[in-house]
Amino acid sequence: MADQITEFFDVQKDFVKDGTQFINRCTKPDRNEYIKICQAVGVGFVVMGAIGYLVKLSTDTHAILAIHIPVNNVLVGGA
């Protein structure tokens, strides 16, 4: 019984030690790194927005090149 208790507290102690080491190794991004991250996120937003707009546009209008994407089947799992 005592072994289980010490093992339980050892796991907790190791978790706190690893978490503390991780936080101490983390650094705040400098200005250039922050700008690069913001640019990458912005490009991702624009690309995903454009893809979503094109898919929505193609499913709303019955154009010759309309793309049919079965959204309900994707979301529900084809049940």
UniProtKB/TrEMBL annotation:
A matching Pfam family: SecE
Keywords from the UniProt entry: Endoplasmic reticulum, Membrane, Protein transport, Translocation, Transmembrane, Transmembrane helix, Transport
InterPro entries the UniProt entry points to: Prot_translocase_SecE_dom_sf, Translocase_Sec61-g, Translocase_SecE/Sec61-g
Protein location: Endoplasmic reticulum membrane
Topology in the lipid bilayer: Single-pass membrane protein
Alphabetical list of PROSITE patterns matching this protein: SECE_SEC61G
HAMAP family named in the record: SecE
Family in the record: Belongs to the SecE/SEC61-gamma family.
This protein's name: Protein translocase SEC61 complex gamma subunit, archaeal and eukaryotic
Phylogenetic placement of the source organism: Eukaryota, Fungi, Dikarya, Ascomycota, Pezizomycotina
